[in-house]
Amino acid sequence: MPIKIPNSLPAAQVLESENIFFMDAERAYSQDIRPLRLLILNLMPNKSVTETQLLRLLGNTPLQVEVDFIYTESYVPQHTSQDYLAEFYGTFAEVRHKKYDGFIITGAPVEQMAFEEVAYWEEVAEIMEWSKKHCYSSFHICWGAQAGLYYHYGIDKQATGQKVFGVYKHHLCVEHERLFRGFDDEFYVPHSRHTEIKKADIERMPELTILAESESRAGVYAIANIEKRQFFITGHAEYDPLSLKQEYDRDVAAGLPIEIPQNYYPADDPTQTPVVRWRSVANLLFANWLNYYVYQETPYELDGLYRAADD
């Protein structure tokens, strides 16, 4: 899927080196089609890394996609310069009048805090409420999934004690689910978190369905609401091959208690090159969401569908 991004975005050089097709605005406007419009609320500290991870996957199917990035105004990111944000990001205030085919909310390194204690919680809650009437399909990742389940359905996260850290085997819980079309019976996904959503808490909600889970410590992996308009994904299929290694090396260097990520290094030896088991999973997951729940579901005229929701 050719994604329209600024040529000066750092991710552009990485994507070009990987032969991922993207286009600039001039070329995009010359195509006589309506692109899919996606909004990404990027809450990760190193925003350029997360941008590249997501754009790599969103650029892997055959339609044109237009992406807007936003950050929270209520908290100034510590690892991304204001110049960078001013050039490549907007704020919620700047996009709240728009309509989008899809909305992605990323994870955030605040999972051990109560939601209400997070500096930007009220703004994130406002954006999630707004997304129900301004974004046709929503895709919540890791802390974003926990935040969405808490805000929309009142399900709180629980501490795991020991960090869920590694690459875990999962299986599907429902048959013929389009989000997982083409998946093997068993598949692997990275996780990195200190909290979880309990299966029993989800099962008490008739509005929610568990789509995939792990028998290991990773637990529930994918949840959808009954309309299949909201998806909650607890792992990080978008992670790069060395993402877990970088987290592990960082914590070791800082003297923090951290275990070797499970099922990641050959023979659990951190001196060896990690084994990537999730690349095809990531590509299928995002391609299926875009195809079956965004492209094939949203109407051509978004304004018509959401006119009643205008402020």
Automatic annotation (TrEMBL):
MF annotations from Gene Ontology: homoserine O-acetyltransferase activity; homoserine O-succinyltransferase activity
Active-site feature positions: 142, 236, 238
EC number(s) from the headed UniProt entry: 2.3.1.31
Family matches, as InterPro entries: Class_I_gatase-like, HST_MetA, MetA_family
SUPFAM superfamilies: Class I glutamine amidotransferase-like
Annotated metabolic or biological route of this protein: Amino-acid biosynthesis; L-methionine biosynthesis via de novo pathway; O-acetyl-L-homoserine from L-homoserine: step 1/1
GO biological process, one term: L-methionine biosynthetic process from homoserine via O-succinyl-L-homoserine and cystathionine
Binding-site list for substrate: 163, 192, 250
Site (Important for acyl-CoA specificity): 111
Cell compartments where the protein resides: Cytoplasm
Entry keyword annotation includes S-adenosyl-L-methionine: no
Gene3D superfamilies with a match to the protein in the record: 3.40.50.880
Annotated site, Important for substrate specificity, chain positions: 192
UniProt entry tagged with the keyword Cytoplasm: yes
One annotated Gene Ontology cellular component of this protein: cytoplasm
Keywords from the UniProt entry: Acyltransferase, Amino-acid biosynthesis, Cytoplasm, Methionine biosynthesis, Transferase
Catalytic activity: L-homoserine + acetyl-CoA = O-acetyl-L-homoserine + CoA
HAMAP family linked to this entry: MetA_acyltransf
Record function comment: Transfers an acetyl group from acetyl-CoA to L-homoserine, forming acetyl-L-homoserine.
Record family assignment: Belongs to the MetA family.
Name the record gives this protein: Homoserine O-acetyltransferase
Species the sequence originates in: Selenomonas sputigena (strain ATCC 35185 / DSM 20758 / CCUG 44933 / VPI D19B-28)
Gene designation: metA
